[in-house]
Amino acid sequence: MVFCMSKFCLRYAYVALFAIPFIIGLYFVVRLNLINFFNRADQVSYEKEKKEQRLYFFIIRSLIFALVLTAIASPFLLETRTVKGNPRITILVDNSTSLNLFESGIEKYLVSKLKNKIPVSVRHIVFGDKSAIGDGILNNLERDENVLVVTDGNSNEGKLLGDVMLLASSLNATVSTIAMEPIKSDVGVEVIGPSEAIRDTEEAFIVNVNNAGKNVPYTLEVKFDDEIAIAKSDDKSNSFTLSKRLSEGYHKITAELLNVGDDDYFKQNNKYYKTVKVVARPRVLFVSEKNSPLKSELEKIYDLTTASTVPGDLSSYMAVILNDVSANKFLPYMNSLSDYVSDGNGLFVIGGQNSYDRGGYKGTFIETLLPIKVGTGEESEKSDVYIVIVIDISHGTADYVNIEKAQAVSIIDGLDKKNNVGVIAFNTVPYKVAAIKPLSEHKKEAIDKVSRLVFDGQSFFNLGVDAANKMLRSVSGGKNIILITDGKTTYNKLMDNTLESARQAAARGIKVYVAGVGDKRNDDFLTHAATLGEGIYFPVDASNKLKIIFGEPESKEDKDYLNKLVLLDTTHFITFNRTLNVVVSGYNYVIPKSAARMLITTNKNIPIMVAWRFGLGRVVSLATDDGSKWGGEFLNKENSKVITRTINWVIGDLSRKKNFDVSIKDSTLDDTMFISVVSDTLPQHEKLDFVKSDVNFYNSKFDPARTGFYNFLGADAAVNYKDEFRDLGVNEEFIELVEQTQGEVFDKENIDGILEFVKEKSKRIKIDTTEFKWPFLIAALILFLGEIGLRRLWENKGHR
Questions:
Q1: What is d(CA 343, CA 314) in angstroms, rounded to the nearest whole number?
Q2: Which of 482-496, 598-612, 635-649 has the lowest mean pLDDT?
Q3: What are the distances in angstroms from CA 763 to CA 85, 144, 741, 767?
Q4: CA 151, CA 179: separation in Å to the nearest integer?
């Protein structure tokens, strides 16, 4: 175990620790008196005379032993010095098809300017219609090397660029690039939208026209089942929305660029194909003892069957809705309901004056199936709530440092002063900003420290979460972490470590909430972290929503404000990209279970909608009514989409009850098409060979040779141009990766800048060690000889 204090280190520090028990033992030894005296007076006189001598001997011998043990612990001095290194550069060239838009021969120009000044090597890493840029860089990475990549940064195969760039940083290698602008122009089209939908529902499709280089004029023509739906002319990048109410069956969308200008370089990406599979309205059972205003709305979307009690056979239904049903009405059917949900079906339980706390659910078997427990509605004290705020202060968040600080300050300011709050900041290592204690004792100090944080280094999210986890281990009560970050990284290992840290925190009873910042945050990663941490991800407006959970609402008499509903978790399928403008006049009192997700609350943190998975199925609880008395605003056109999304989520796979079904995803020319079939018998097709992968489940592969629409066993699928022609121009995310991993973006004329950068990065810090044993041994020897001399002096003095 090496221990260092500044430049002084001990190689075997544990040896020096033996000095402590020796000095303690020596203290008692020198106090011992082994001489027998005839009387007490002689003993007192002797001890008084020897007291001073014993003190000196104790100090000298303690120092001797300490010095000897320090020498045995092998002390040494650290000395650092900068050495010149071996400046050289490797130029990696991307020769993929998309680079045809850019100036050619850049690497030859760079070599001609650099070869007489530093060693230069050139390697070509990518060719043709596959851009495995990450693999090319990885294969040419070496420790302490400088790599300059001539590329547009659009990788469509192989290793993720983010992983490779972070690996380069860990190897002390740099990856830089050349700033390039297209000298040729291109325009392409792409359609984005759902691949599956329910009959008679309205779906939106986004048609993106992407222009690289100079503006190229075009006329966009979008056909929906051979009927022209959009016809627009423009000369720049643009997005168009196509909304359609869909009938059952397969629908084909074709987006084509016509009358394209002569400057358009690639013709392959001027046409895009998309298919949409629309299934029949799923069968849903609606159980209600009263006339419901919700029933007429659901009949427009679903194949709805109404009943006043739960029937014995539920097998034909995709989902069951229980509308304000009291416990005694469906407790006799709980076994069949539980089996029904466990088998992969859905259950949606709507509240009201006859359900939940008003319907006798509390303490019954019903509660085991639901994502909630029935509560009394009493607000609990929050003095046992512990919160650690974890702030990302890496270089990557420096662009919006003021926003992130403001977010953290706003969160602290909105927390209940009785809560116990600590603050941790992190980049490559975690830092304790404020210890965990009641917010009332250090709120001003914590806010001041947060406002003075300096942003630098790289983001190691897992270290921040682990540090908060460690801070919360010694406390008991409600434990929570609030992580504030943009989550920007493409390094899979770092993301996996962070997700594992969130999972471990949840296993210890700690909820991990995540507040996203910045306009380029990694929402998918942060959502996954919050989900594994059994918390909630807030992509925007985190301070207000966290205040609902941990704070006290503003003192307002306005009942409408307190009963206004809030989409608390906007990352769930039910609430994603949705808005809600509902004020309820009443609700049932429920408490979410720890494994459930609370999606909607009131402004005073009364849970309204909670979801979870039960077995293979899905269950949602709505703690207000169907609109007949409390939740009428839920039934308007915009708000009701949350209800239909809820039912769609509990239904899940729309094809799971079919005896025969074909599933095919749209593909591209450079990808294999996968065909999955549910069937009682082996499917037969002249171009396909099927393999059985499960009971009544078969798979096959197909390699398309042309773009356009295909049909297999009655199912339509689309094949589009190769991925190489989709993303054209310079990839700004690659430029950001270069800058975040200590690389540079150079102009090709900036030869001096490249040389200076390479020479600077080639410098190495060399650490030398100087052994330092002899001074301690010599000092111990001098003290030992001094003790002998002192002892002789006292003995001679005593004989006189």
A1: 11
A2: 482-496
A3: 5, 9, 17, 13
A4: 9
What the block records as the tokens of 682 is: 């082996």
Contact 353, 326 (CB under 8 A): no
Long-range pairs, 250-253, Cβ under 8 A, ≥24? 250/275, 250/276, 250/277, 250/278, 250/715, 250/716, 251/224, 251/225, 251/275, 251/276, 251/278, 252/223, 252/224, 252/225, 252/226, 252/709, 252/716, 252/718, 253/191, 253/193, 253/205, 253/222, 253/223, 253/224
Half-sphere exposure of 132 (CA within 13 A, CB side): 11
324's tokens: 């304000």
- Say which DSSP state 159 is in: S
Measured distance CA(424)–CA(433) in Å, rounded = 5
Looking at the predicted structure, is the pLDDT value of residue 382 above 60? no
Overall average pLDDT of the 152-180 stretch: 84
Distances (CA, A) of 560 to 342, 564, 583, 633: 39, 6, 6, 12
- Answer whether 74's CB lies under 8 Å from 118's CB: no
What HEC string does 445-506 produce?
A: HHHHHHHCCCCCCCCCHHHHHHHHHHHHCCCCCEEEEEEEECCCCCCHHHHHHHHHHHHHHH
Average pLDDT over residues 371-391: 74
Report yes or no: 562 and 554 within 8 Å, Cβ to Cβ: no
698 phi, psi to nearest 5 deg: -130, 145
Q: How many helices (H) and strands (E) does the chain have?
A: 21, 40
| Beta-sheet pairing, 346-350 with 319-323 | parallel
The CA-CA-CA angle for residues 189, 130, 721, to 5°, reads 30
Q: What is the DSSP letter of 682?
A: -
- Identity at 562, one-letter amino acid code: L
Q: Terminus-to-terminus CA distance in the chain, angstroms?
A: 53
Q: How far is CA 89 from CA 19, 133, 469, 593, 734, in A?
A: 53, 18, 43, 58, 20
Question: Residue 57: its pLDDT value, please?
Answer: 80
